[in-house]
């Protein structure tokens, strides 16, 4: 299913009782796809928090959005890694993508650490 189709479904899942882990897993996939998608997912999470008067959800979306700098998603991915508890496969994807961002920024040692961590978590999918 494309990320664009999941946005409205996830928004409605977040509004009543919430499925933040599902939204955060989707946010990781969006970060892999593009910076634009990552921004849209962060906004969706923040909007759902605002619309449901859920400060935790709103702040989570805001932290994700604030962690995106130009095309560098390192801080946003760090937030997802530290706060999301998305399961090993998604966590491995987040570490791998953060590794790519470190590598693109010339932070090779940090990139290698993240790539190693991704492989430790899910060697079959990275």
Fold and architecture overview:
This protein is mainly alpha-helical and 126 residues long. The chain has one domain (3-121). The protein has 7 helices and no strands. The longest helix is centred in the middle third of the chain and has 17 residues, at 35-51. The two termini are 20 Å apart.
Radius of gyration: 14 Å
Please give the largest β-sheet.
none
Tell me the count of domains: 1
N-C termini distance: 20 Å
Question: Uncertain segments of ≥5 residues (pLDDT<50)?
Answer: none
Apparent shape: globular
Q: How much helical structure, as a percent, in the residues?
A: over 70%
Structural class: mainly alpha
H/E element string? HHHHHHH
How much of the residues is beta strand, in percent? under 5%
Mean pLDDT over the full residue set: 84
How many runs of DSSP E, i.e. beta strands? 0
Helix count equals 7
Could you name the key traits of this structure?
mainly alpha; 126 residues; globular; 0% strand
Question: What order do the helices and strands come in, and which of them pair?
Answer:
Elements: H1 3-14, H2 20-33, H3 35-51, H4 55-66, H5 74-83, H6 88-104, H7 108-121
Helix pairs in contact: 1-2, 1-3, 2-3, 2-6, 3-4, 4-5, 5-6, 6-7
Question: What would you say about this model in short?
Answer:
This protein is mainly alpha-helical. Helix content is 76%, strand content 0%.
């Amino acid at each position: 299913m494309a990320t664009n189709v999941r946005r409205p479904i996830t928004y409605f899942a977040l509004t009543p009782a919430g499925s933040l882990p599902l939204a955060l897993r989707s946010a990781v996939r969006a970060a892999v796809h593009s910076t634009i998608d990552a921004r849209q997912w962060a906004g969706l999470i923040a909007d759902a928090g605002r619309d449901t008067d859920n400060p935790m959800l709103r702040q989570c979306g805001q932290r994700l959005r604030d962690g995106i700098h130009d095309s560098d998603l390192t801080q946003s991915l760090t937030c997802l890694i530290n706060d999301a508890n998305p399961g090993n496969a998604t966590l491995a994807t987040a570490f791998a993508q953060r590794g790519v961002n470190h590598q693109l920024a010339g932070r090779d040692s940090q990139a290698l650490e993240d790539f190693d961590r991704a492989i430790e978590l899910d060697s079959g999918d990275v």
